[in-house]
Design brief:
Blueprint: H1 2-21, E1 35-43, E2 48-57, E3 63-71, E4 75-82, E5 87-95, E6 103-110, E7 113-121, E8 124-130
Length: 131
């Protein structure tokens, strides 16, 4: 169990580091406003969604982190608002069955259309989306 927790913490630190070190593209300063996205996670039966990490950052270096842990069930979703010039990194971790047959699918939708999708399979499930 300690190895699993350590693995999740390392993955989270890497995700935060990658998203905080990337250059921001502020090609639309003072733009038209906020964009609403829905992040959805689905895992196969017998798998778990352990943690969802959303890191929201902008060109000024300002960063907010939203961490959701110990998610019950096989589905989860939440709405996120992306401000003009902001980047968001979503990292999702979970655990599958010991036989490696489990799958995780992560979808990011805007206006009921899937704009990004990522998946993971096996015993350790991980997926990442960057917008």
């Amino acid at each position: 169990m300690l190895k699993k927790i350590k693995f999740l913490l390392i993955c989270t630190v890497i995700a935060v580091g990658v998203s905080s070190c990337s250059k921001s593209d502020n090609s639309n300063p003072g733009g038209s406003g906020d964009e609403k996205y829905i992040l959805s996670v689905i895992v196969t039966e017998g798998a778990t969604i352990e943690q969802v990490v959303a890191v929201l950052g902008d060109a000024t270096g300002s960063m907010d982190t939203d961490v959701v842990r110990d998610i019950p069930g096989t589905t989860w979703s939440k709405e996120y608002t992306k401000k003009s010039g902001q980047k968001i990194s979503f990292t999702v971790h979970g655990f599958g069955k010991d036989d490696g047959s489990s799958k995780m699918t992560v979808k990011l939708t805007k206006d009921n259309k899937v704009v990004k999708e990522a998946s993971g399979s096996g015993v350790v499930l991980q997926a990442m989306i960057l917008i």
